[in-house]
Amino acid sequence: MKVCTDACLQGAWTARHLQKSKPERILDIGAGTGLLALMLAQETSAVIHAIELDSPSAKEAVVNFGSSPWSTRLWLIEGDVRTYNTDERYDFIISNPPFFKKSLRSPDARRTAAMHAATLSFTDLRDAIARLLKPGGQFSVMLPPAEFQEFRELALEKGYYVHTLLNIHRTASDYAFRAVGIFGEGEVEFETNVLTLQDADLDYTVGMAQLLGPYYLYL
Questions:
Q1: Which pairs from 108-114 meet CB under 8 Å and 24+ separation?
Q2: DSSP string over 7-35
Q3: How distant, in Å, are the alpha carbons of 54, 124, 132 from that of 109?
Q4: Would you place residue 116 in the very low, low, confident or very high pLDDT band (cuts 50, 70, 90)?
């Protein structure tokens, strides 16, 4: 399973948040090969459903789930979240959605679908969350800052506000390149958190090591 540092940061930071709220049912939208679902399973006792449209990725996620210590709590759904319905809504939803809407597309169709908002627009994602999330539930989304602001405005149309925010910087002198938001109903005062990945010597910072330490064998 390929591991993306960006997704690991979202998974670790979200899992830290969920240790307080302790959800019983979680949905991972656009699960890929299952990384986020596995990270949340490690740190919570929730039943986690992961939905993935791409068939090869979905099949790999099934293998990854089955090989994990949390296999009895992980379920892979191969399909399109835009048409997915369930009788029981989720306490928490996580998604690392596609975002390269205007950039040149890769000749690799699977990479295009994974990296561009070509198969799941921000509006589609917001509407799926609104349909599948329990009243009072929360959700986690990670995007580059400009796209995050666009999604934030769309979420507001459904009454979802940022409840906590993490801005991620490569170094202290760089602009943030990713934002992770925990959204929920109702406007609240929230603190903007900052995570810097590397120090002046390009070594991992203490904050980075502490966040990902529970998931990486060597850091």
A1: 110/54, 110/56, 110/57, 113/53, 113/54, 114/32, 114/54
A2: HHHHHHHHHHHHHHH--SEEEEES-TTSH
A3: 11, 20, 28
A4: very low
What tens digit of pLDDT does each residue of 24-59 get? 999 999 999 999 999 999 999 999 999 999 999 999
Q: For the stretch 7-16, what's the b/e string if a residue is b when 16 or more beta carbons lie within 10 angstroms of its beta carbon?
A: bbbbbbbbbe
**Among the listed residues 139, 140, 142, 143, the one whose alpha carbon sits nearest the alpha carbon of residue 101:** 143
Element housing 160 (H / E): strand 160-169
Q: 10 Å Cβ neighbour count for 146?
A: 9
Q: What is the spatial distance between Cα 179 and Cα 72, in angstroms, rounded to a whole number?
A: 32
3-state secondary structure of 128: helix
- Are 10 and 183 in contact by the 8 Å Cβ rule? The answer is no
Which residues are paired to 142 by β-bridges? 180
Beta bridge partners of 95: 29, 141
- Tokens representing residue 196 in the block: 């810097």
Contact 65, 76 (CB under 8 A): yes
Half-sphere exposure of 174 (CA within 13 A, CB side): 17
